[in-house]
Amino acid sequence: MSQLSNLVQRKTSRFLLAVSLLIAALASFAAPALTPYSAEYKIEISIVNGKLNTLLHRTETGYVAESVIKATGLSRLFVAGSIRETSWFSEGEGSIQPHQYRSTDGLSSDHDTIDLDFDWHSNEVTGLIDGEEFQAALEGEVHDRVSLQYGLMYDLLNGGEKKEYFLQDAEELKVLSITNIGSKAVKVPFGRFNAVGIQHQRMGSSRITTLWCVEELGYLPVIIEQHRKGKLRLRAVLTKYDPIVDSMANSTAQQESR
Questions:
Q1: In degrees rounded to 5, what are phi and psi of residue 225?
Q2: Which of 153, 225, 236, 253 qualifies as a cystine partner to 41, CB 3.0-4.6 A?
Q3: Each residue of 100-126: pLDDT tens digit?
Q4: CA atoms lying within 13 Å on the CB side of residue 257
Q5: Pairwise CA distance, residues 19 & 13, whole Å
Q6: Among residues 209, 219, 217, 213, which one has the least CA distance to residue 240?
């Protein structure tokens, strides 16, 4: 009886070892995740100086990201208000999928507002744009203006950016071509880094946006530049960065308070 018991124990032990090795192997193949953080950028838009704050929290179903632009210094005498954008998204089928997007532009004279919901079951995006109802079909991987950056970061974390991204920019669906322009050493107020340059440009547009992304920061861009017709129109440089360890509770509280 003891021999049978020992045999059962040995087989059970081997089985549990095999299961633990399988779990470890599966975990090693898990896609690297985005790192929750808070960051601050010094931003120059033409002759206007400002501050860009970005925030990424983890939620029970994915992530919520916020972006706020405000004028600073003497620029506040000419430009009041802020631009606030929020995107809720998750990881799905090897990519980032947006679910909700909210934007309030208090800087422009029109005070634009955008409120979109992405339904990946019915493959539709619906919502309100400046109070007008909007509806369009979702085909392929489509991003909002905030989730686009995190889609790029996620893809870089997992082996490389795609050649094209689709952006739902208000009522317009834009096709952005992506170019990796290589790596270089960069210096920003937060520090010195080796960064990879990722450019995106709408087909037929003279506007080119360049993100200088740093691997040790989860491919967060430390420099954001936008050129139009060869001239620099916008530049943002990273001044502060803090990773967030326990963000789920805070993120859930934020969602419940909305």
A1: -130, 145
A2: 236
A3: 999 998 866 565 899 999 999 999 999
A4: 6
A5: 10
A6: 217
For residue 161, what pLDDT is reported?
A: 78
Assigned token pair, 9: 């124990």
Strands 142-143 and 164-169: parallel
Range of lowest pLDDT (24-33, 48-57, 86-95, 135-144) = 24-33
pTM value? Answer: 0.80
DSSP-derived 3-state class of residue 92: strand
Q: How many residues does the chain have?
A: 258
Angstrom distances, CA of residue 94 to CA of 18, 56, 178, 213: 27, 19, 18, 20
- State the chain's maximal CA–CA distance in angstroms: 89
Q: Average pLDDT in the 152-177 region? A: 92
Coil vs helix vs strand at 3: helix
CB 152 within 8 A of CB 164: no
**Domains of the chain and CATH, by start:** 37-257 (2.50.20)
SS3 41: strand
How many CB atoms within 10 Å of residue 142? 23
Query: Is residue 183 within 8 Å of 210, Cβ to Cβ?
Result: no
Whole-angstrom distance, CA of residue 48 vs CA of residue 46: 6
180 residue type, one letter: N
Torsion angles phi and psi, residue 126, rounded to 5: -135, 165
Task: Note the pLDDT tens digit of each residue in 170-209.
Answer: 999 999 999 999 999 999 999 999 999 999 999 889 999 9
Stated as kind and residue range, the H or E segment containing 7 is: helix 2-28
Of 69, 72, 73, the residue nearest 82 (C-alpha): 69
Beta bridge partners of 194: 185
φ, ψ (nearest 5 deg) of residue 97: -120, 120
